[in-house]
Amino acid sequence: MVLKKLNxxxxxxxxxxxxxxxxxxxxxxxxxxxxxxxxxxxGKYGGRFCWxxxxxxxxxxxxxxxxxxxxxxLNCGFYKLVRAEEGTANLRTKFLRFVPxxxxxSMLDGLTYKHIKKGERFLTQGEEGNSAYIxxxxxxxxxxxxxxxxxxxxxxxxxxxxxxxxLLTGEPRSAHVEAETDMSVWVLDKDRLDHISDKDHELLxxxxxxxxxxxxxxRPTADRTIGRYIATDIIGRGGYSLxxxxxxxxxxxxxxxxxMRHDLAMRSEFLTTFRNEAEIIAEMNHENIIRMYNxxxxxxxxxxxxxxxxxxxxxxxxxxxxxxxxxxxxxxLLQTCNALAYxxxxxxxxxxxxxxxxxxxxxxxxxxxxxxxxxxVGTDDHFFGGALHYLAPELFDGEPADRxxxxxxxxxxxxxxxxxxxxxxxxxxxALMKMHRNQDIPDPIEVVPDLPEALRRFILTACMRDPxxxxxxADSALEELNKLK
Length: 485
Prior knowledge:
- This protein is an alpha+beta fold.
- The chain has helices at residues 8-12, 23-26, 70-74, 77-86, 95-98, 101-108, 164-169, 190-199, 201-215, 262-265, 268-282, 314-321, 326-345, 393-396, 403-419, 429-438, 453-462, 474-482, and strands at residues 57-58, 61-62, 112-116, 121-123, 131-137, 140-146, 149-156, 161-162, 176-179, 183-189, 224-226, 229-237, 241-248, 254-260, 292-298, 301-307, 312-313, 348-349, 358-360, 366-368, 375-376.
- The strands form six sheets. It has a six-stranded antiparallel beta sheet with strand order 11-12-13-14-16-15.
């Protein structure tokens, strides 16, 4: 039986959680509100990391910053409870628990053993990172300094490894680290890391997965320099990449920087896909397709530097509006078809058309984004690519993607944005694949009775199960849509 881990307000019983008995009179505790702490120490928001959250309500009064309340927090029963639980929690990220006991001696043999005093800042943000620290005893807090303000972002305890990011990637240290208590640590330097990694690929995988996880923070992140560009804040997350907002250092031009997650960059098939995306976007020059500026391989991963877009994707717009009026839908479909026609004429199939990859800017200007699974027409790589709900039936039978499969995905997208739902019930992957193969989509006019006939005809034709009965390319689809202009 797994015991429930308490959040601070449940332990202290202050009543200042959302809806708590004291929340109206005294205000909701910041530790129960700040979602950027979600996931730290397996807590809800900042509720397991409350000693780093400013303005919490403890001992009958509102507390100050993490630095001001440090001493009282270290003596708090809740802090001691969390530290005790951390000894057996998060085993996947605990270096000393990942390594079996019979291998620890050989791995730790020869490492420098060091004692660190409580309150000492033993790592400094921006410095060269030529060593990491394996914690045998004690705990520390990780602090990112941004725009002159210090932001606590993480907590490391016994068995954890500190600052593997800088050691593995070769970048400057991404944060300050201060000892919360007296600490005893082993110092792992780069030469020793390389020696261990050459002999133990499983351990290298552990390190890279750990780095990938810690890069994906919802707290403020340190600025990172990638060539002429500075990455400032994470603005997007995908299954294999993070997207940063950035700026060209000399031109002061805003950019988006897409970084492949470090653990996937170690795998050749994902690295090939990422490079393929860069090569495809680099060849594109169309007003409705995101532009690429540069491509960098460094820090044991790869970066695509692209134009920075302001607005929201079509999925986010749908979540706000529920449905989109027919004439605005036609506007979006025309722009998407123009982008697809351009790509198709270059012999490129997008393979992942869906509302998430259609980005809406100011004045309803549209950009087609994320060519991560795009490929030349007729490529048969036995990889579906794309979101399951939008895949054409023939792809489930092993047929290669072509222009018509993009048209099908656009038709499903059009159905969704005019009706507010996808055409097939979502009862699991197998059932969904079967419906795509064997059932025509419902007539959208049953949901939207005043749907213009040309738009209805476009959706039904685009979503024909037989690819030969669909529009054969985006230019043919444009002919139908232009009747609604």
